[in-house]
Please model this.
Amino acid sequence: MPTAVTDGLPPGPRTPAGVQTLAMMVRQREYLERSRRRYGQMITARVWGFGPFVIVADPALAKQVFTASPSALHAGDHSPLRRILGPNSLLGIDEDRHLEQRRLLLPPFKGQRMQTYEGLIEEITLAEIASWPSGSEFAVAGSMQRITLRAILRAIFGASGTELRELEELMPDLTARGSRLATLTHLQRDLGPRSPWGAFLRVRARVDAVLDRLIAMAKDDPGLEERADILALLVQATHSDGSPMTGEEIRDQLVTMMAAGHETTAHQLSWAVERLRRHPAVLARLTAEADEGGRALREATIREVQRMRPVIFFAGRYVMAPYELGGYRLPRGTRIGLAAALTHFDPALFPHPDRFDPDRFLDQLPDTYSWIPFGGGVRRCIGATFAHMEMDVVLRTLLREVTFAPTDDPPEGWRFRGVAMAPARGGRAIVTRRVRRAAPAVVPAAV
Ligand code: HEM
Model:
C-alpha cells in the first residue's frame, strides 16, 4: 500500500527563530538531541538567514539525499560561501559545472598518491612541535592550525620561499574575514578599504596576486611533470573539450581547498588530543603501536574522533523543486541538513555512542551513510583521503615524539569557530618529550 505523503515540512521546535538560532550557535548538540527525542528523525528548525531547515538524522534518508539527482538538490549556488570563495569554487556551483570541476580536481586526490605527502607532513609537524613547552599546559589549536595551513600550502599549492611566507601571512586573515562575512550578506558591499567587504576584497586580491605568480611559475617549470603538488597537476588538467583550466578556475579551487581543508583538519586534530588525554589506555596502546610501526588502531581512532567530535555538523542541500523525503513533500527553497551531529550519536547505529571506543572501527570500516563527517555522494569531501593521511601522520609523529599527560578534567565543550566546531579551550595539553631511540629518519620532502 502506498504511504501517504504530506505536503510541507515535518514538525519541529516552536520556539522563536532567534532562540533556535542561539541554541544552534551555543548548545548545538543538546538542542539537536532534545529535538530528535521530541520530533524524531526529521526535524524542521528555524534559524535566522536560512529559511526552513529540515535536519535529517536517519541514514536511509541521508542515503536518498546524498544520491539524489544533482538537479533536484543543489549544494553550491545557495551556499553562503559562494561569494567568498569565487565564482568557480567547487563549493559554490552545481550540476554540470560542478561535475566538470570535480572531474578535474579528483585525480590529484586519489588514494595511492597520498603517501607522496607523508614525509612532508612529518617534517612540518616536527618543526612545529619543536617549540612545544615541556611540562606546562598549553592549547594545541594554534599549532594544529599552523601545521594544516603549511601542509596545504606546500602539498596542494606547491608554495615555497617568498610565496609560502606571503600566503602564511595572508591566508589566516582571509579565512577570518571570509568566515565572519559569509552569512552577513547585507555587509557584502565594497564601501572602500575600511568597510568589512572592501577590506576582505583587498586581502583576496593580494592572495590572488600570489596565486597568479605560483600558477605562472608552475607553467614555466621545466620539471612540472615530476612535481607532486596538486597545483602542478591542475595546471596540466584539461576540460572535456581539451581546453586547460583557466587561471581564475585554478585560483578559486585553491582558495576553496584552503578554506575547506585547513581549519577542519586542524580542529579535528585538536579534538584527537582532547579525547586521547581523557582515555589513557587508548593512548598507551597507540604509542606502543606507533613504536612498532603499526597503524590500524590509529586509523580506527581517527574515525572514532570524527564520529564523536565531527567538526562539520551538517552537509547541506537545497530543494530546487518539491521533493519527497521521509513522507513529506518538501517545498522548493527548503534547506536540508544531513546531521553527522545526530547520526553519529544514534545508539541503534553506534552502541554506547557517548563512549569513546576506537575498537568499534578496528575490524570494520564505518557505514557510508551512518558515519558522515565528510558528507556524501557527488559532493563528498574531495580532500577526505588527504585529511585522513594528514591526521594519521601528525598523530603518529606526536605519539613518537611526546607523551601526553592524561587528565580527568571534564570534556572540552564545542565552540563554533567560523568554519567548523572546535574544542572550546583549544585542546589543552601537557606534554613531555620522550627519551627513546634516535629520532626517526625524516623522509625528504616530496614537494
Ligand atoms: C577533517 C577534515 C575535513 C572535514 C571534516 C571535511 C568535511 C567536509 C564536508 C562535510 C563537506 C561537504 C560534503 C557534502 O556536502 O556532502 C566537504 C566538502 C569539501 N571539502 Fe572537506 N573536509 C575536511 C578536509 C578537507 C581537505 C583537507 C580538503 C582539501 C584539501 C577539503 C576540500 C573539500 C572540498 C573542495 C569540498 C567540496 C566538495 C564538493 O562540493 O564537491 N576538505 N568537506
Summary: The radius of gyration is 22 Å. Residues 6-433 form a domain with the Cytochrome p450 fold (CATH 1.10.630.10). The first strand starts at residue 6 and ends at 7.
